Batch of 3 targets.
Target 1
Amino acid sequence: MGGRARAVKPPPAPPLLPADGEGSRLSQLLKTYLKPKDIAQVMAAYRFSDIAHTGQMRMSGDPYISHPVTVACILAELHLDALTIMAALLHDVMEDTEFGKQELTEKFGATVADLVDGVSKLDKIEFQTATHEQAENFRKMLLAMSQDVRVILVKLADRLHNMRTLDSMASEKRRRIARETMEIYAPIANRLGLNEIYQELEDLSFKHLYPLRFAVLTKSIKAVRGNRKEVVGKILEAIKQRLSDLRIEAEVTGREKHLFSIYRKMVEKTGTFSEIFDIYGFRIIVKDTATCYLTLGALHGLYKPIPGKFKDYIAIPKANGYQSLHTTLFGPFGTPIEVQIRSREMHNIAEAGVAAHWLYKNTDADLSALQKQTHQWLQRLLEIQSESTDSVEFLEHFKFDLFPDEVYVFTPKGQIMALPSGATAVDFAYAVHTDVGNCCVAVKINHELAPLSTELHNGDHVEIITATQAKPNPAWLNYVATGKARAHIRHFLKTMKSSESAMLGERMLNQALRVLQANPDDISEEQWKKLVRDYGVQDKQEILTDIGLGQRLNVMVARQLLTMAEPSGEKPVKQLGSITIRGSEGMAIQFAQCCRPIPGDPILGFINKGKGVVVHTRDCSAIRKFRKDPDKWLDVEWDPDPHRLFKANMRLAVANQPGVLAKIAAGIAGVGSNIDNVSMEEGDDSAYTHMNFTVQVKDREHLARLMRGLRKLPEVVRINRVKGAANS
Ligand code: MN
C-alpha cells in the first residue's frame, strides 16, 4: 500500500539476512515450529523479495522489505506453514515489481505463486459503497475470490500491518482504509475465528475513524484500570484458591475487553462507560471438557451465578467453531464477574481460529479431535455442500470454493450483486430490473463489449446496454441461469406472441373485409358472438390471434363473419390488399432466414401454420415452391418508418492484409450499423479471404450506403449482398 516506486534494476549481490528487528524475530519464530529445510526455502523467498523491492520505500520511510517481513511474522505467530510464510514475504512482488507469476512459479512452485497471485487479485478490488448488505456481499466476494483460505490469511496480516502503520498516510486515505477494515476485513477475521487479529483490526479502525472518541475512551480506561487492579487481583486469588482446593489444574487470567467492543456495547446497549466497564472478565483454561463443567460447579459454589446468564457453547458451539462455558457471577464487591471456561484446545481455536489447524498439523497423522472439529466448523462456516467426504484430503489441500453456488459482480455504480454461479449477462440484466432485462441488447464486461451469453465471474464489472425497442430473444432461454430471468423471458414471449399476433390478425382480417367490400367497423358484436360460438373458441381475441399465427385464414374468417350478418350475401373473393409490415410484430411475422428481407426490398408473405407469416423477398429462390399455393400468399409491404434494425447478409472478398477486419468493422460502425455475425473462409488462394457478414441495417438504402463505403477500401476486392442460403 502506498509509497512504492517502481523497482530499479536489482543489484547483483544478494543482501545479508536481516540480523535485527523484525527480520531476526521472524527467524526466531520460524525456528520454533518449522523444519530447517523449510526455513531455508522461506529465506530464499525473503532474499528474492528483498532484491525485487530494492529502492522502494514505505510511506514511513522504512525500506519496503520491512513490510512483507512483518506480515510474515504475524502469520508465523499463528504457526502457518512455510508456503504461507513465503507467500507473505512475496505478497507485493507481483504488484510492485517487474517480476510476474511465471517467475514465482519457477522459483517457488505453483502453490506459492497461486497464493501471491490471489493476494494481488484481492488488492485490485476496492470497496466503494457502504450499506450493510453491500458490505456482506463484498466480504463474500473476497472470500469467494480467495479460493485458498491462506490467501485471505495473508491478506488479513497485510491489512493488519498496514493498519498499524496507517499514521503515515494522508488523512483522507486513512479514513477510507479504516472504514474498509472495519466493515470488511475485521468481520472476515472474526468469521474465520482469528480473534486477536480481529480485535486489533477493530481497535485500529476505531482509532482512525473516531480519533476523539478513541482518545477519550483510552483515557477513561487508563484512569479506572488502577482501581480495578486490586479488585481483579483479589477475585483472581479467590478463584485460584477454590480450584486448587478441589485439585483442579487451571490457568486463570483476568481478561480485558478490547476497546472497540466496549465502545460498541456502549452504543448498542446505550450504557454508560462505567456500567459496561465495571464488569470484570476472567478466563479459565483447563485440560479437558469434563474439567470445564467441574470448574463451573466450583465457581457457582464460590459466587452466586446471575440467573439467565449461563451459556453452554461447548454443547452448542458458535457458528465460527467457538467453544466455551460462559457464566456471570455476583462478585464480592457487588459487581458482576464474567467468566469463560474452556479447554486448551478450545482456547487455541478461540484465539487462532482457522489457523489453529496448523498448530496440530505436524504432530499426528491421525485426525485429532481438534482437527475434526476445525474441519466441521469450517464446513459449517463456509456452507460447503460438497459431495466429497474425504476429510483428510480436505484438510491437506485446504483449497475450496467458499461459496461455490454464487458469483459476485459489480454494477456500474459499484454495487455488488450476488448471482448463482453460471449466471450470464442476461441474468444480471434481469436482476437489475425487469425492464433492463427485457430491453438489453449488449453488455460491457470490465469495460469491453461481450456477448450477452457471457458467463460472469467474481469481481466482474458489468454494464448492460439497453435499447428502447429491444425485446427478449427466445435464444436467451438457452443460457440464462436464474429462474427470474427465465420466467420473465417466457412471460414476455407468451404475451407478446398472443397480443402481437392478435394485432396482426386484426389487420389481416380488416384487409380481407375491405377486399370483400365490407367496412370492418360495420361488423356487429352479434356477428362476432355467433362466430365465436360457431368456432367453439373463447373469444374474439382468440380468433384474431389464430389469424395472426396463420392458424386461420383471414379471408375465410372475413367471409364467415359476413355470413353471420346476411346469410345470403356471399361475395366472391378477390385479390387481397397488401398488409403493412413494421418489423416489430415479434413472433407473428418472421423474416425468412434464407433471403433476410430488409425495408425497401419487394416482399411477399406466406402464411405458415402455427408460425404466422414468414416474409421473403420476391426474388427469393425459396418461394418458388409456394407459387402453386396462392391461398397462402399474402401481399405485404413495408411500413415507411420501421422501428428497428434488420439483418442482412453480405459477402466480401478482401486482400489478405493485417488489420483488414478492423478496417471493415470500423467502416460498418461508421455508418451506424452493427455486426451481428462474421465468419471467414480460409481459401487455398492465400491472396484473398472471403468474409461473410451479417449486419444490422435500417433499410436497403442504409445497406447500400454501407456497401458503397466498404467498396472504397483498397483491401476490398468484391462485395455483394447475399440473399440465398449462403450465410445463415
Ligand atoms: Mn502489502
Target 2
Amino acid sequence: MKIIAKKSLGQNFLIDKDIIYKISQITKIHRKNILEIGPGTGNLTEFILKENPKYLTVIEKDENLCQKLFLRFKDKIKIINNDVLKENLEIISSNEKFTVFGNLPYNISTEIVCKWVLNLKKTCWFDELVLMFQKEVADRIIAKENTSQFGRLTVLMNWRLNITKVFDIGPNSFSPKPKIESTVLHFIPKKNFHKFKNSKNIEIVTRTFFNQRRKMIKNPLKQLFNDPKDISNKLNIDLNLRPQNLSILQFYEIINEYEKLRS
Ligand code: SAH
C-alpha cells in the first residue's frame, strides 16, 4: 500500500539506510528499554530492533501508520497511538529508564524537550535522548555564549542536559524532501545541576531577556527587579551587555535572585 505523507503531521520519512544505521549506532540499544517517538513507517524502528532492545515502545499519532507498524512488527513492539505531547512518559517508563529515539516534526521536537526538561524530577525517567532537529534550531540549542544563536533554548536545555551534536543530515535522506537541513543531537541528563525553586522561572527570566535580545540587559533587569544596579553589583555584571553576552551560569544566578525576590 502506498503511503501518502501528511504535511500536517510533519511527515518526512528517513530513507537513507546509511544514515538510519548511523543513528542506531549512536548509543547502546542492546537489552535496553527503548522508546521511539514518531516512528512513521518504521524505518528507524527496524534498525533499532536489529540491535535487540529489551523492550521497544513506539508512540505515533497517525492511526493509519500505527496499523502499518502493527502489520510490519507485530508483537515485537508496543504501539501507542497518541500525541506524544499528551503522554505521561514518566509513568509509561515504569521502573526502567527509557533511551529515547525520535525523528519528530521539528516544532514538536523543540516543544517536547522543553516540556520534558521543565518537568523533570530530581531523577530522570530517561537515560539518553537521540533526537532530530532542524539544523538551525539545533545550532541554537548548542550555541556558545557571545553568538547570535545563544538564547532561551540554550539556557533552558543545558540546565539539566549535557548535549552533543552527532551529525547533520541533508534533505536527500528523506522522502518527501524537507526544505531544510537536519541535525541529530544526543542528550544525557546531568548528575549535578543548578537548583531552582520552580523551573518556570527559567522560562520567565529567559523570555524577558531574549524577547529584547538587542537591548542592553539593564532593560530586562529593570522589568524583573526593582533596582537593576543592585543585581548587577551583586552578580558583577555590566548593565550595558546584551543578553547573549552573559554566560549560562550568570543566567542561573539571575534566576536565583529573581526567585529570592518572589519568595
Ligand atoms: N521517524 C520516522 C518518521 C518521521 S516523520 C522516520 O524517520 O522515517 C514524523 C513522524 O512523527 C510521523 O510519522 C508523524 O505522524 C509523527 N508525529 C507527528 N506529530 C506527532 C505527535 N504529536 N506525536 C506522535 N507522533 C507524531
Target 3
Amino acid sequence: MSGTILVTGGAGFIGSNFVLRERFRKSRIVNLDCLTYAGNLLNLRELEGEPDHIFVKGDIADRGLVQRLFAQHRPEAVVNFAAESHVDRSIDDPGSFIQTNIVGAYHLLEEARSYWSGLSSQSADRFRFLHVSTDEVYGSLGPSDHPFTEQTPYAPNSPYSASKAASDHLVRAYHHTFGLPTIITNCSNNYGPRQFPEKLIPLMILNAIEGKELPVYGDGLNIRDWLQVEDHCAALGVVLQRGRPGETYNIGGGCQRTNIEIVNTICALLDEMVPGSAPHGRLITFVEDRLGHDRRYAVDCSRIERELGWRAKESFESGLRKTIRWYLDNSQWIESVKSGAYRDWIAKRYGGEAIVVDHQ
Ligand code: NAD
Ligand code: DAU
C-alpha cells in the first residue's frame, strides 16, 4: 500500500514496529495513539523529522478527532492496533479493556463507515479496515487438540480476550451489515524489540539482567506459540495488500514452547551474552498461577500461507537472541519505560488534550 494509512496504537509494541516497517514501503502514516503507559514516543524516534509520519495524540473513542483525521488525511486504510493488551491487568481491572477494546473499536468503526460511505465507488472498493486481534479469542487448547483455525469457535476466557472477541464480532458485523471492507487477523504471542516489560519475554530478560527473581506462573507448563514481531508486521502488510474483505486470517509462528522452556532459553542466552552474572537460572521462582490461566495456544496459519503466500521467516532461537541484544543495547528505552520520568514528560508536554504533532 503506498497511500495514507490511519494506524491506531502505533506508539505501542506491534504498532510501532509496523509503522517503522511501512516507511520503507512509501506509505504515509497518520498515527493515532493516546499514549497509555504502553505507548512510547521513543519507539518512533527514528521517524522524527519524517514528513510521511504524522503523530496524533488522541483516543480512538474521540469521535470528533477521528472524524477530522479521516476528513483531513483521506486514508486508504485503517489498521487498528489500539488496545489494552495485558491479560494480568485485565484481571486486576477490566474497565479500560471494555472502554478501549470494545467501545473504542465501535467508535472507530462508526467513523470509518461514515467516511467510507462518502468515497467514490473505486476508492470505497479499495478501502480496508484491518483489525489486529489475537488467538486468545479461541480459548484454550488441550495437549493434543489441533491448533486454532479460522473456523474454531470463539471461547475467550479472560476479560482481555473477551473484549477482543467482542471487537472482532463488531468488525465482522460491520462487514456483513454495512459492507465495510473489514479484515480481521488473529495472531499468536509476539516477541521482539520495544515490547513493554510486563509481558513474559521482556520481563524475564530485564529481571534477569537486574538479578531479580524470574516469576513463572503455576507449573510453567502453559504453552504459547511465539512469533517475531517483524514477521507479524509482514503478515499484516500482505493482508492489507491481498487479503479479502470479510475474511479472517490466523497468523502464528508454528513455534509452541512451554513458559519454562522460554525462561530457560533466555537464561542460557544471557549466560553466554552476560557471563559475569551467570547462571541466570538460579533466579527462576515458581509463583502463584494467573487466574483462569489458559493452558495452551497454537495457531494453524495454513490459510494465510496458502492464500496470501506469507510465511514466518525468523527462527525462534535467532529471534530471541536478537531481542535480548536489543534490550541489552537500549538502556535508555528501558529507563524511560520503567522510571515514570517518561510519563511525567509526556504529561507536561501534551497535557490532557488531543494534540497533533505534525513532523513537517
Ligand atoms: P501495546 O499495549 O504494546 O500497545 C497498545 C497501544 O495502543 C499503546 O501505544 C497505547 O497507548 C495505545 N492505546 C491504548 N488505548 C488507546 C486508545 N483508547 N486510543 C488510542 N490509542 C490507544 O499492545 P501490542 O502488544 O502492541 O498489541 C497491539 C494489538 O495487537 C492489540 O490490539 C493486541 O490485542 C494485538 N495482539 C497483540 C499480541 C501480542 O503478543 N502482543 C498478539 C496478537 C495480537
Ligand atoms: O496470544 C496472543 C496474546 O499474547 C496477546 O493477545 C496479548 O496481548 C499478549 O499479552 C499475550 O498474552 P499472554 O497472556 O499469552 O502473554 P504474557 O506475556 O502475559 O504471558 C505469556 C505466558 O507467560 C502466559 O502463560 C503467562 C506466563 N507468565 C507471564 C508473566 C508476565 C509467567 O509465567 N510469568 C509472568 O511474569
